[in-house]
Amino acid sequence: MEYESLRMKTTAPPSPSSDPPPRSRLTDPVRLRALRETGLLESAPADIFARATRLATRVTGVPISLVSIVDENRQVFVAQSGLDRFDAHSPSETPLTHSFCRYVVETDAPLRVSDAREDAVLGENGAVRDLGVIAYLGVPLRTIEGQPLGAFCLIDREARQWTEEEYEALSDIAAGVEAEIRLRHQINVAHREENRYRAILDQMPVGVGVAELGTGRLLDLNATAIEMFGVKNGEVGKQLAFDAYTPEGRKLSLSEFPIVRAARHGEKINHMELRCVRRDGSESNLLISAQPIESDPPVAVATALDISELNEARERAADIDRRLANFHEITSDAIIEIDRDDNIRFANSVMRARIRAAVGAATESQAIGRSLWETVPHLRESKLAEALAEARRTGTPTVADQIGRDGRILEARIYPESGAILAYLRDVTEERQLAQARDTLTRELNHRVKNAFAMMSGLVGMTARHATTPDEMARGLRERIGALARAHELINPTATPERDFRGMVELRELLLGVLSPYTNLDDPRLTLDGPALALNHAGSTNLALVIHELATNAVKYGALSHDAGRLVLKWREISGQLELDWRESGHPGKLVPPSNSGFGSRLIDLTIQGQLRGTYGTEWVPDGFQARMTVPMDLIKG
């Protein structure tokens, strides 16, 4: 600062009693933070500052010199020379009421006072009364950012006219003091940052190690790495407290360890998985990376992440996936998964077999990743497509029946999740047929019970008309009821393995058994004509059901309802087909065909066409009724 400015400060020092600016430099938080970062408020006196004060007193001949640091409440003497009242080996301080240096900080400018007793403000300062400060010359000590921390000053207990040479000498020495303060400030900031970095590093769940490039000497480990490996700072590999193994079980030598390779050979290792076994027997799975770092001095840095729990979770998930995949392959259901764009993600072996059967092996081999509709285009307008759209729209599971190209009935259970679809297709053909058969048989049972009562009534009446005595009537009625029971056993369609199947039945025997409640071979009205033919269980029960229906109608309305009627049954085998003709004739009046088919006719159609995959046709002639049925021999022949 120029000498004229110094003189100006001398003639017009700041007035402590005047109104303070909006924010005083003394209480400025930025300045106070910079002050505390120097560490000078708490540190012991430093020799370098003491030498500066001694030098200042020798050069200028002034008896007292101070390095003073000022906070919001006090001034601390970092070093002093000539102030006998204070112990030179410990920091000393005064309140701001006993401070001239505070004005150097507040104005951030040098201050020169020749005789404080003559100054209206400074004359009342405690330093004048208690410390004998009369003349004062001080210059600011600033941080590198320009924040005033305190003052370097000269003090005389007598009035003194300060010279420019004294000011320049003080300023030159102050520059050295200021440089040392700045250096200490930077060192303290660096230490603080280092401590902060260390605290963060030690809190990290990742182990970090630093080694000297070239030698491999271990420079540093964070707390996590020390816990992982049980290794203290020292040279890598001198005595490792653990053994390392590859996932295949091969033990690593020292030279193969990642940080050693990076430090000694400059290699870069990414995500090397190792199993670490410590001396206490505990072990963990680690994922280690290491690489050389360009720094001064150059080092190698390694990171280690404990993935033991992750590996366990992966293994559990893989085990679940294996079990699920095994279930998907052993189930008889066809399973398919499609993404939100309808591309096939997964299809189990049953599903792939159905795709292969429907569109060919070449298309099936390319199905994964392709659109479902490109793979099986015939499903675009199907019930399955409608159900998929409904499941996506509502976000709830949906069930639908889909008829396959092979005619099988597939029940599709569709489960939407986050736009994707998982569908289980179960072949329920037999279940549906069985349910239909149960319904039919239930209705047939009701129908048959009604017919049984009607037939019993007819048998009673017919027997009574022809019997001459009660005993004869009872005997005839008993025989007819027994024949009806035998016929019922033959046509029982609900027989099970537990009920001792009758096995093969000869067609002629079957016909006589069914017709025995109403007629026999001695009846001139009946003619049976056909070759010997053994029927299996399916053939016998289904044909018996049909013949029984026809016989029941014949007893009620046709050839067996009067003495003049004729019933002729003829059968033959032609080109793998059984043809059986039922011909009724001799009706005395004109027959009128029914206006609609009853349950019996529908039952015959269902049995011949549905169960035996055959054909059935009828014709009404003036004096009777004719029917022809044709069924494949391979379904009925025993």
Automatic annotation (TrEMBL):
Record's keyword terms, sorted? ATP-binding, Kinase, Nucleotide-binding, Phosphoprotein, Transferase
Residues forming the PAS domain are 195-262, 322-393
Q: Which residues form the Signal transduction histidine kinase HWE region domain?
A: 444-532
Give residue ranges for domain GAF: 44-191
The question of whether Kinase is a record keyword is answered with: yes
Enzyme class per UniProt: transferase
Catalyzed reaction equations: ATP + protein L-histidine = ADP + protein N-phospho-L-histidine
Q: Where is this region: Disordered?
A: 1-27
Where does this protein have compositionally biased stretches of type Pro residues?
Answer: 13-23
Q: What is its EC number?
A: 2.7.13.3
Domain of life of the native organism: Bacteria
What is this protein's record name? Answer: histidine kinase
Species name: Thioclava nitratireducens
